[in-house]
Amino acid sequence: MTAMENVVHSALIDEILGPLPGSRVPKGSGFLAELHQLIGKGVPARVIGKLEKILGLSPPQSARLLAVSETSRKRFRQSPARRLDEAVSDRIVRLVSTLAEAADVFGEDAKAIAWFKTPSLVLNGQSPLDLMTSDPGAKMVRDELNRIRYGHWA
Question: In the chain, which ranges are E strands?
Answer without folding.
Answer: none
